[in-house]
Write a structure and sequence with these properties.
Blueprint (H helix, E strand, L loop, with lengths): L13 H7 L5 H17 L7 H13 L10 H20 L6 E5 L9 E4 L10 H11 L1 H10 L7 H16 L15 E4 L4 E4 L4 H28 L1 H14 L1 E3 H8 L4 H41 L1 H11 L4 H7 L1
Length: 326
C-alpha cells in the first residue's frame, strides 16, 4: 500500500521486507519507508535501496543510531565478542532463525545487537526451537567468559530474557521434567505500600520450578559455550570484521561460517556498498538525462518553426538547391 508512492531500487526484496516487518502496523510500515526515503535523500540518491530499508526497520524497532556516543576500545571489543557469540551460536543451531544483521553501533539503549529474522510464518514453536533460542541468548555471556575471562553487565538483558522464557516453559507450557502441568504465572498484588507476588502453588513446587528454570538456563549456557569453543576461529574472524566494519549482514555472516578470511569478507562488504552507491549514482544520472531529454522535446514542440529552420540550416545544399536559388 505504501511502497508504490516511493521510488524503490531493483534490489528491494518485498519477501524479505514482509518477514522483517511481521507484526508491524500500517503506520509503522509507512514510517519505516519514510525513514528510508529520508536516508536515501541524505545520501544524494533518487531511489531507495535495500540498505535504506534495513536502516529504516532498525530505526523503528531499536531507535536511531548513536554514532556520536563515545565508545572506548575496550567496550567496542567486549561488544564485538558478545554479539559475535550470539550470531555464532544461532548459525550453528538449525532450529534458530537465520541471522539478519550484527552491529556494534549503539542504538537506543543497546551498545550493539544481533538481529534474527524468521524465514517462515510458523505460529507454533517447538521445544527444540525454544532450547536453541535459549542457547543463542546465552551465547553473548558465554563468549565473554571464554575470551575475556570475566563477566560484564552487558549480558543483563539477555539473562532477564532467558530467565523469563525458561520460566514460561516450566510453569505455563509444560516443557520440563515437571510434566505438562500449568502452574500459572506470578501475579503482583498491591498490599498498601508495595507490590507482592502471589502464586497458586506451594513453596515446595516453587522450589522445583526454580530448579527446572536453573537447569534449562545452565544447559543452554553450556551448549553455547561448547559451540563457541568448537568455532573459535570463526568467532575471531567475525569479531575482527565487526571492529573494522561495525555492521555485518546475513551474506557476510554465511561467508564467515563457510571459512572465509577477514580480507574476503571485507571485500564483499566493500563491493556491497560500492555497488549500491554506483546504482544510486547511475539512477541520478539517468534521471537527469531523462529530464534533459524531456526539456528538449518540450522546446521542440513549443518552437516547431525555429526547429525546422535550424535543421534546414544545418543540412548541406545539393546542386538542385543551388540552381533553384539562382
Amino acid at each position: 500500500i505504501s511502497a508504490p508512492e516511493k521510488p524503490l531500487a531493483d534490489d528491494v526484496d518485498f519477501k524479505i521486507l514482509a518477514r522483517a516487518t511481521s507484526g508491524f502496523s500500517g503506520a509503522e510500515i509507512a514510517n519505516l519507508l519514510n525513514e528510508s526515503a529520508i536516508l536515501c535523500a541524505r545520501a544524494g540518491r533518487t531511489k531507495i535501496t535495500m540498505k535504506d530499508v534495513y536502516e529504516g526497520i532498525d530505526k523503528v524497532i531499536m531507535g536511531p543510531q548513536k554514532k556520536s556516543r563515545l565508545v572506548t576500545e575496550v567496550d567496542k571489543r567486549i561488544t564485538a565478542y558478545h554479539e559475535a557469540g550470539h550470531a555464532l551460536v544461532a548459525m550453528c543451531l538449525p532450529a534458530c532463525d537465520p541471522v539478519h544483521e550484527i552491529t556494534i553501533i549503539p542504538r537506543g539503549g543497546a551498545g550493539g545487537y544481533t538481529m534474527l529474522r524468521p524465514d517462515n510464518d510458523n505460529v507454533y514453536v517447538p521445544l527444540s526451537k525454544l532450547k536453541s533460542d535459549l542457547a543463542m541468548t546465552m551465547g553473548g555471556r558465554a563468549a565473554e567468559e571464554i575470551i575475556i575471562k570475566d563477566y560484564t553487565t552487558g549480558a543483563s538483558a539477555d539473562i532477564r530474557q532467558a530467565t523469563s522464557t525458561a520460566r514460561r516453559m516450566v510453569a505455563e507450557l509444560g516443557m520440563s521434567d515437571l510434566g505438562p502441568v500449568f502452574y500459572g504465572s506470578d501475579r503482583e498484588v498491591f498490599l498498601g505500600r508495595d507490590y507482592a507476588a502471589s502464586h497458586s502453588y506451594s513453596e515446595a513446587v516453587a522450589a522445583k520450578i526454580d530448579a527446572e528454570v536453573n537447569r534449562l538456563i545452565r544447559e543452554a549456557h553450556d551448549k553455547a559455550a561448547e559451540l563457541i569453543r568448537a568455532n573459535l576461529d570463526k568467532l575471531e574472524t567475525m569479531v575482527r570484521v565487526l571492529i573494522e566494519c561495525e555492521t555485518v549482514y546475513a551474506e557476510e555472516v554465511k561467508m564467515i561460517m563457510d571459512g572465509a578470511s577477514v580480507a574476503e569478507v571485507k571485500k564483499a562488504l566493500q563491493l556491497r556498498y560500492e555497488g549500491k552507491k554506483d546504482s544510486g549514482e547511475q539512477s541520478s544520472v539517468s534521471a537527469e538525462s531523462n529530464a534533459q531529454s524531456t526539456q528538449n522535446e518540450q522546446a521542440d514542440v513549443q518552437n516547431p518553426d525555429q526547429t525546422a529552420k535550424e535543421n534546414s540550416d544545418d543540412m548541406p545544399q545539393t546542386a538542385d538547391d543551388k540552381s533553384l536559388g539562382e
